[in-house]
Amino acid sequence: MPSPNALYLDLIKRVLANTVYGDPPHPNTWRDSVDYDAATRARGADWPTVAHTMIGLERLDNLQHCLETALADGVPGDVAETGVWRGGACVLMRAVLHAAGDVDRSVWVIDSFEGMPKCSAEDHEADQAMALHDYNDLLAVPLETVQDNFARYGLLDDQVRFLPGWFRDTLPTAPIDRLAVLRLDGDLYESTTDALRHLYPKLAPGGFLIVDDYFLPSCRDAVHDYRSEHGITEPIQDIDGFGAYWRRDR
């Protein structure tokens, strides 16, 4: 029989992804169906109308695994996500800390809260064609809405810290000392590069770097360019065909 903490976190994930009620997705350029599909939602391959996350159960499981491993191994530092949408992944991180009885670490919720910026010259044509900023009526979630989502789970407290603004403006001076888990969900080349440049040096040895959009050519290029520039050789591990992660060497 699973422990009460395991059951709590499993329920949190199912509610975050709304596999409980199965809300229909928004149509978009690569999936025009508006019918809920359990397998698609589990893979995080749709844009939910109601759910608090679009990353799916498999990437939520990965995030839980990375954070619980970091906690078990005593990796120091806070946890952070760059690009949070409705805040679901950050809610899970706060729930994991709560279940573990951790009262010292902060969850950094980092987003423009204004949606996606326009593509830059470094972004691939395929990614530019997606024109994610054209969906900002869906992707732009106000700070107050994200805060309210935390409160709905009873998880809005002093351990949740918000950093609003464009990454290029906020990350160079972000008051973050050390990180145990860093999750990137910025999609684009510049957004991914900004997060890596300013936050990866703060990732403690033994900590985890998770890239939600590794399947996007622009995001993947940003990751490989940064790794090459800084001699990072830890193996990249696939999560679900969309996201990927690696653990920083001790």
From TrEMBL:
Record keywords: Antibiotic biosynthesis, Magnesium, Metal-binding, Methyltransferase, S-adenosyl-L-methionine, Transferase
The keyword Ubl conjugation is annotated on this UniProt entry: no
InterPro entries associated with the record: SAM-dependent_MTases_sf, TylF_MeTrfase
SUPFAM superfamilies: S-adenosyl-L-methionine-dependent methyltransferases (SSF53335)
GO molecular function: metal ion binding; methyltransferase activity
Pfam families assigned to the protein according to its UniProt record, in alphabetical order: TylF
GO biological process: antibiotic biosynthetic process; methylation
Pathway where this protein functions: Antibiotic biosynthesis
Domain of life per record: Bacteria
Record flagged with keyword Metal-binding: yes
The name this protein goes by in its record: Methyltransferase MtfB
Family membership noted in the UniProt record: Belongs to the methyltransferase TylF/MycF family.
